[in-house]
Design a protein that fits this description.
The structure is a single chain. This protein has 11 helices and 3 strands; from the N terminus they run βαααβαααβααααα. It is mainly α. The protein has a 3-stranded mixed beta sheet. Helix 2 packs antiparallel against helix 10 and helix 9 runs antiparallel to helix 10. It is globular and about 60 Å long. The protein starts with 10 loop residues before the first strand and ends with a helix. It is found in: Cell membrane; Membrane.
Length: about 325
């Protein structure tokens, strides 16, 4: 895939959130704290699941991979975005812009498959409990994670297959904090209507259909849970409600942005920031605050770390 097209434009200007210096200082501090909390929160979940034997189950294996993807999703553009708050010239090279788009769709596609896999895991655990360990074997879970990355790669490549060779010869201002496909293709010097329709079919409609399927899946699980009244059912309901909250927070902004790529709403910029920064931050909170096993394991890991640190000093 050739990145060196015949465009006059060699860099794009990211407009950011505000041109006021005082606000940019505030955004720099605010997003630095949010990004640090996102990385540390997801990293803590990954380390906790890896180090705690009782969390070596299919659900937590998938959760650990989700945290890794969230940590990556928050990192593909946020460090540059934070640095740009202190810069007057918020520019990104053509190659850098394409790279951001690639990783955004790679990680987004992988997370969609992983969220579907987690829904499947909960469905089997609640609706077919006697066959749970047989169906959701370690081999199956590893296969689902590998599949999520394969789908992510193919999705990202399909989005860039036509974009990299578009001619950009005029405007180069992207009305966002990072490069995203709907905003970048609007700057091309040719009619991009067909490309926009392709983007709707491969991003917007796929996200919408997957979200509808997930809603149906969790509805079936909820109906099954409500037919039971045991403590285990209460725990299952708490787990599924946490999963569904995470699904809604991720798919909501994606559907809004990619189902209507021809129309630029003022809220699009906020939604882009939300699903690439705040959703990865909220996922650790959602999954840990309502999960006693994860919270207890985090406390054990923290106590071991604090006991080990003095020996290093």
């Amino acid at each position: 895939m050739a990145w060196n097209n015949q465009s006059v434009v060699r860099e794009f200007i990211l407009q950011g959130l505000s041109s006021a210096w005082e606000l940019q200082i505030f955004y720099f501090l605010f997003f630095s704290i949010v990004y640090a909390a996102t990385v540390l929160g997801n990293l803590l979940i990954v380390l906790t699941i890896v180090s705690e034997p009782r969390l070596h189950s299919p659900m937590y294996f998938l959760l650990g991979n989700l945290s890794f993807i969230d940590m990556s999703l928050a990192s593909f553009a946020t460090p540059k975005m934070i640095a740009d708050f202190l810069s007057e010239h918020k520019a990104i090279s053509f190659e850098g812009c394409i790279t951001q788009i690639f990783f955004l769709h790679l990680l987004g596609g992988a997370e969609i498959v992983l969220l579907i896999s987690m829904s499947f895991d909960r469905y089997v655990a609640i609706c077919k409990p006697l066959r749970y360990l047989t169906i959701t074997s370690r081999r199956m879970c590893v296969g689902l994670v590998i599949l999520s990355w394969i789908v992510g790669i193919f999705h990202a490549m399909s989005q860039l297959a036509f974009t990299v060779n578009l001619p950009f010869c005029g405007p180069n201002e992207v009305d966002s904090l990072f490069c995203d496909l709907p905003l970048v293709i609007k700057l091309a010097c040719v009619d991009t209507y067909i490309l926009g329709v392709f983007m709707i079919s491969t991003s917007g409609m796929i996200a919408l259909v997957c979200f509808i399927l997930l809603v149906i899946s969790y509805t079936v699980i909820l109906v099954t849970v409500r037919q039971r009244s045991s403590g285990g059912s209460s725990k299952a309901l708490s787990t599924c409600s946490a999963h569904f909250t995470a699904v809604t927070l991720f798919f909501g902004p994606c559907i809004f942005i990619y189902v209507w790529p021809f129309t630029n709403f003022p809220v699009d910029k906020v939604l882009s920031v939300f699903y690439t920064i705040f959703t990865p931050l909220l996922n650790p909170v959602i999954y840990t605050l309502r999960n006693k096993e994860v919270k207890d394991s985090m406390r054990k890991l923290s106590s071991r770390v604090f006991k080990f640190l003095p020996s290093l000093l």
